[in-house]
């Protein structure tokens, strides 16, 4: 969607009137139900049916009233639009996603966590096989094929979305893995696998943050 927004105007926006013109044109690129709205020097998302209130609500989106901020706000409007299509089962889950993806609240602490994806993945793998089967309470084992299959399906398929396991965990890396295309090239948002991706990658992010906190 951002490509169409970027092509709306070919000039360079410098003055307020130019920015306002670009803003008004860009509003037409927003999806139904989620519009961008100017709030002095920032931009808000005007959500027609907000999951928390059930009605219209304006939410911040961490975008300034600049040409670049407007482009980002339109992209985020589309992300919110897709997120409302039943991919989250609870309001709290959606709010966590909104804070992380739209408000970028987790960006700063994650960027400097000196722990690699490989380290986090190893910790999660060890925790999984040191645990018990959720139904039978049987101790899991790497020697049991069903446990191996479950780990691959629930964890490894998500881990493999990260292209380089030996770099430090970063917020940009988390988002790249979360939104990497499906095998057919389509966006994962709204797909049944997206929820598992989001849940597992949030665990990765939390472990990176906890690691840093414990070392202080």
UniProtKB/TrEMBL annotation:
Highest taxon of the lineage: Bacteria
Protein name (Swiss-Prot/TrEMBL): Uncharacterized protein
Taxonomic source organism: Limnospira maxima CS-328
Higher taxonomy: Bacteria, Bacillati, Cyanobacteriota, Cyanophyceae, Oscillatoriophycideae
């Amino acid at each position: 969607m951002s490509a169409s927004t970027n092509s709306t105007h070919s000039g360079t926006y410098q003055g307020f009137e130019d920015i306002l013109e670009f803003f008004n044109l860009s509003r037409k690129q927003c999806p139904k139900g989620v519009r961008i709205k100017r709030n002095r020097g920032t931009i808000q998302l005007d959500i027609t049916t907000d999951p928390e209130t059930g009605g219209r609500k304006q939410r911040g989106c961490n975008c300034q009233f600049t040409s670049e901020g407007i482009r980002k706000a339109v992209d985020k409007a589309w992300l919110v639009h897709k997120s409302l299509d039943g991919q989250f089962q609870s309001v709290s889950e959606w709010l966590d996603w909104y804070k992380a993806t739209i408000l970028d609240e987790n960006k700063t602490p994650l960027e400097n966590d000196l722990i690699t994806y490989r380290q986090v993945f190893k910790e999660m793998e060890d925790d999984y096989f040191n645990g018990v089967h959720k139904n039978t309470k049987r101790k899991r084992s790497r020697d049991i094929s069903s446990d191996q299959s479950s780990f691959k399906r629930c964890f490894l398929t998500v881990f493999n979305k990260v292209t380089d396991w030996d770099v430090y965990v970063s917020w940009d890396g988390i988002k790249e893995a979360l939104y990497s295309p499906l095998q057919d090239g389509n966006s994962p948002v709204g797909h049944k696998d997206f929820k598992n991706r989001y849940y597992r990658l949030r665990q990765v992010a939390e472990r990176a943050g906890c690691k840093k906190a414990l070392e202080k």
